[in-house]
Design a protein that fits this description.
The complex is a heterodimer of chains A (174) and B (74). With 174 residues, chain A is α/β, with parallel strands linked by helices. Chain A is built from 10 helices and 6 strands. A 5-stranded parallel β-sheet of chain A has the order 3-2-1-4-5. Chain B has a domain of 45 residues. Classes of the chains: A alpha/beta (174), B mainly alpha (74). Chains A and B meet through helix 1, helix 7 and strand 6 of A and helix 1, helix 4, helix 5 and strand 1 of B.
């Protein structure tokens, strides 16, 4: 797994509300934030947290180069011809950068999450669910079920049955 | 609505969760554009299209979802 990630607005806006949000920067050496994503983040707590992380260097600004922009627009066009929820430019940039540099893409956008399977892309996309599970695997978080429930409550977010079934299979093994 | 789905069964489950948790009294009192955008999200789960319908940026649309107790499910 790459030690670098790239995050879109949907991920950062929700993740910033999680009281254990600091585990993200213990999983990844650096989290890239595209300029187009930064422009979408307007409100606290997300804007304050992202600014703090940029200042301390655990987040870094990702400037879209012409080849990344072109790939992002290609992915947006491709997604429109497939059974996939909308992918807009900022999350398409994250997918393009994930493809180009091997970053883990962090997104809560359903289109971006399913894009690797539907579009056949060789890129890893994680939601908060996968980040919390990874933090638990590394023993950065203690009780997986409690943490996922905490995330649901703090971010006003719900995980699906298939996610909970996976959690029960993990917890049962310990 | 003509939204494209990833998986029928999972989409039904997600839609039921969004419908069940939503604060419908709050939603009914919203201006028509915001109400339509939230209902679009509840029914389709398409965050980007719903946000664009609302006329808000993503951060403010997500805040509106929170006030309406509409969970993000994906």
């Amino acid at each position: 797994m790459s030690r670098e990630a790239i995050a879109d607005s949907s991920f950062l806006i929700d993740w910033s509300r999680y009281s254990r949000r600091e585990v993200l920067t213990r999983i990844f050496d650096v989290v890239h934030v595209p300029e187009s994503v930064l422009r979408e983040i307007q409100l606290p707590p997300a804007i304050d947290w992202v600014a703090e992380k940029l200042a301390e260097g655990s987040f870094t600004l990702f400037t879209e180069t012409p080849d990344i922009e072109a790939k992002a627009r290609e992915l947006m066009a491709l997604s429109r011809s497939k059974p996939l929820k909308a992918i807009d430019y900022p999350e398409a940039v994250c997918l393009a950068a994930g493809l180009r540099f091997g970053y883990v893409v962090l997104s809560e956008n359903g289109g971006a999450y399913f894009a690797p399977r539907v579009l056949g892309l060789g890129v890893v996309v994680w939601r908060a669910f996968e980040v919390v599970v990874e933090a638990w695997r590394r023993e950065l978080l203690q009780d997986l079920v409690d943490e996922l429930k905490r995330y649901e409550e703090e971010a006003v977010h719900l995980f699906r049955r298939r996610d909970w079934e996976y959690v029960w299979s993990l917890v049962g093994r310990r | 609505m003509g939204v494209r789905m990833e998986s029928g069964g999972e989409e039904v489950e997600a839609r039921e969760l969004r419908r069940r948790y939503a604060d419908w009294r709050f939603i009914e009192q919203l201006p028509p554009k915001l109400k339509a955008a939230l209902i679009y999200y509840i029914e389709t789960g398409d965050l980007r299209r719903a946000q664009q319908l609302s006329g808000l940026d993503l951060d403010n649309f997500r805040e509106l979802m929170r006030r309406a107790r509409v969970p993000l499910v994906n």
